[in-house]
Amino acid sequence: MMLRGFCAAEAAALLRDLDGVAAVAPFRHMITPGGYRMSVAMTNCGTLGWVSDGSGYRYSETDPVSGAAWPAMPEGFARLAMNAAQEAGFGGFAPDACLINRYEPGAKLSLHQDKDERDFGAPIVSVSLGLPATFLFGGRKRKDAVRRIRVANGDVVVWGGPARLTYHGISPLTDGEHPLTGRRRINLTFRKAW
Question: How far apart are CA 148 and CA 146, in angstroms?
Answer without folding.
Answer: 6
